[in-house]
Protein: tRNA-dihydrouridine(16/17) synthase [NAD(P)(+)]
Organism: Gossypium gossypioides
Amino acid sequence: MNKPKPLISAILNLNLHPKPLFSNPIHLMALTQTRTTHSDPPQNDAEDDVLCSNPEQTQEEQPSSPSLDETPSFVGSPGKYLTGVSRFERAWAHWTKLGRPKLIVAPMVDNSELPFRMLCRKYGAEAAYTPMLHSRIFNENPKYRSEEFTTCKEDRPLFVQFCANDPDILLEAARRVESHCDYVDINLGCPQRIARRGYYGAFLMDNLPLVKSLVEKLALNLNVPVSCKIRVFPKLEDTLKYAKMLEDAGCSLLAVHGRTRDEKDGKKFRADWNAIKAVKNELRIPVLANGNIRHMDDVQNCLEETGADGVLSAETLLENPALFAGFRTSNWVADNEKDSIDGKLDQADLVVQYLKLCEKHPVPWRMIRSHFHKMLGDWFRVQPQVREELNAQSRLTFEFLYGLVDRLRELGVQVPLHQKDDASATGNLAEVIGI
């Protein structure tokens, strides 16, 4: 098929170069030290927890893993940057070494797994977070480690995100992954009920001494830098004090979601870019902006209005993993159809590419099912009986899923993605994504 063009990367100076695709996944069980001291919790044998790999694959066919002794990417050594200006210089030196990525896949539980990250990278994402990993379960349960965190050599720059409320447990989990990522990230922003019950994420905003201890523990003991992702307080002054405390504790990069803990509905509450701008002006480390990123115009506006060093997108990427290559769904072209053109790409194309990545990089079927619903939501609204066929399928196979896409096409469903009709500001997509 003809390859469409991405949006104004030159304006944003985004440097979207082709990336080599894709090596075999590195499963964490193979790359971490065996340091478990607790008995494993009971294993869940439900179908959705089964990996989508070939069950007949032999051990000899599994990819080799890199050495745990490979040199971490952080500039400097642990425990030396809580004092002096050098800690800010080191934070920026590391960010610069990574290419100062601007377009970043946000952490999404069960949704920012390796195949999806690689699909987003193919379409312009310059860095990505893993899904949030539970630090205690990560330490205790080998099955959880091997299924929930996989990576490959092209999966960089990479943030590995943990939730935690115990510094020692967090450090143990972080040490298992530090040789295979560019930041260990602490989730301080999850507002969901499960985070309240587990006492992590945004609910640690009520216990800032504990938050400080989590950051300091990692900053003093890891060979990679610590990053944090937060939500804002209702009062700006509290947000600024919070951000400064994190920086002083050793945080080397801060991602700020411009909504409060109680503002869970992103469609109902607009993110406060002014609060993000104030944090950026207050700190001396890189700051990322999260919230209100629906298409590339939003990316440009956010960078200009906040002064942030990059943006994160979550929900919009789930529907449209090609967002960072300048594509937008029909929801965001209705008011400006005259300025948009058919991008010669649709979500069914992206689903097929995602499935091929899943065959190469196995993940639990529940993640694949979730992405199918999110990427083909508009298509299922046109042909709801096809959605019911998917929901009725208790055990998924690749053959069934490829057939489902074919069935939608045979029924005449097509919901194209669009691009801005601005040839002077776009390049050739085939050159950008290497297809």
About this structure: The longest strand covers residues 251-257. The chain has a mean pLDDT of 82. DSSP finds 19 helices and 13 strands in the chain. The radius of gyration is 21 Å.
